[in-house]
Amino acid sequence: KDILNVLLDYAKDCKLDERIESMFLGEKINKTENRAVLHTALRNFSNNPVLVDGEDVMPKIREVREKMKTFTNAIHSGEWKGYTGKPIETVVNIGIGGSHLGPAFVTNALHYYHKDGIKVYFASNIDADDILQILEKCNPETTLFLIASKTFTTLETMTNANTAKRWFQNSIADKSAIAKHFVALSTNERACLEFGIPRENMFEFWDWVGGRYSLWSAIGLSISLAIGYDNFEELLKGAYEIDRHFRHTPFEQNIPVIYALIGFWYRNFWGYSSNAIIPYSHLLVDFPIYLQQLDMESNGKYVDLNGNVVDYPTGQLIWGEAGTNSQHSFFQFLHQGTDIIPVDFIGILQPNHNEKTHHQWLISNMIAQSEALMIGKSRDEVLKELKAMNLADSEIQGILNHKVFLGNRPSNIFLLNKLTPKSLGKLLAIFEHKVFVQGSLWNINSFDQWGVELGKVLAGKILKEIKENLPVEGRHDSSTATLIERYRSNRSI
After folding, report:
1. Following DSSP, what letter does each residue of 416-454 receive, concatenated?
2. Over the stretch 231-288, which tens digit does the pLDDT of each residue have?
3. Per the residue annotation, which of 141, 156, 233, 297 is the catalytic one?
4. Of the candidates 226, 224, 221, which has an alpha carbon nearest to the alpha carbon of residue 116?
5. pTM of the prediction?
6. Is position 297 annotated as part of the catalytic site?
7. 86, 384, 456, 461: which is the annotated catalytic residue?
8. 86, 328, 358, 387: the active-site residue
């Protein structure tokens, strides 16, 4: 309790309350890009205005929501038909990063809420095998493509989009047919029109919506098409409830704040650089992957808001896998490894199925793992067990230390009564706000991602050298030059 009070005092010293209010008020807290951070406005169901540069953005948000609702209902009712008059049966979301990870995770997690007659796939990787394997499952007459790119210039997304377009046009030469099978989630109207997507097929979002926070925007159209707009709105409302809790609840009872402070304590006072996310729900199997972008892209920074290099650790390595699978891969490391890894467990009390035995074993394992990490197994306990087996003293001494668990390894457990759109929205918002709080404690900008850019720029230069067979000696270090030459001398396409 004393430690928690110290951490709470530090949060207050950092003026966390002012930072929270600045975000909700639409102030430009993303200093390096001079942008507001208003994903919370996307799930705002109050009648209060939200201002950006003096303009209330809520009317435009409601307009896009209504357009998403109308479009979703038209697909589900069969009113929207493909170019041959057949209803849409398959949706392919083409995006990457936040335009992929959030929608894909939520869509898969809410499997039990999927609408009959609609299959949803997600293509993201520049590796052609990703999009090609999806296209093998599609019928051009009944497939709808969602091109999710704010700028409509994202390399991976537009490469995959053009491959999908070429595949589609191989079945029909009429260019006007694209209008019935391609939709843009973008703000670049000109590029969308040049691609062949008409203005009425464009769903807008704004530069104050960061990619890793964009599932609440038009980028979430794939979610809406999978589970229905009403359920998509429940997802938003769940997050909105947490937004209100986060904004108005004293820090002493504030879930995202306390969660963030615990992680800050582990990172900066104990030096734990890693955080394992273990959902004991196969529906949440992709949650660790989603959180990797949310957390590591946000707080993987070594420069503070004033442009100074920090002299303290920031961010954590986020990783994990679903239980109980993970128990048979890396839990040995968690229990007896030389590094201590704080663990976050997520459990569902009431499953969406009726397989009682499965679920009781699942929950029992989660609780047992948390207990084992905490209390471990002492040397005396192990010794007593080995002696009861009537082993010789030499055998006991040979195995004794191998069976000892030191314990005192930290974990949290998040329990959801049931996995619903609303409860999932709450869970996601808790983790979003936790990331923001920790960024505030570290005095870094959690809303830019300059570290993503350098590799892209270098890849463009290398691609030009490969395609035009340019000399690489003197342009790169020897290792990079050798790799380029190795590819050029062995390529088959």
Report:
1. EEE--HHHHHHHHHHHHHHHHHHHHHHT--TT--GGGHH
2. 999 999 999 999 999 999 999 999 999 999 999 999 999 999 999 999 999 999 999 9
3. 297
4. 226
5. 0.96
6. yes
7. 456
8. 328
